[in-house]
Amino acid sequence: MKGKYSEDPFLAKFLGYESETAEDVLQWRRDRIAKRGSDSKRGRQIV
Fold first, then answer.
1. The model's pTM
2. 25 to 8, 15, 22, 28: CA distances (angstroms)
3. Residue 9: which domain range?
């Protein structure tokens, strides 16, 4: 799309122009677990 909708606030967020991607899946998972906190019942610890 080459930035076609990057000026529209709703579409920019919806299409991911404002999102950051993790280096890999494991890093994404670690970040997600860290954001939920240690008291969360969901998710498992990655060793």
1. 0.42
2. 29, 20, 7, 5
3. 1-38+43-47
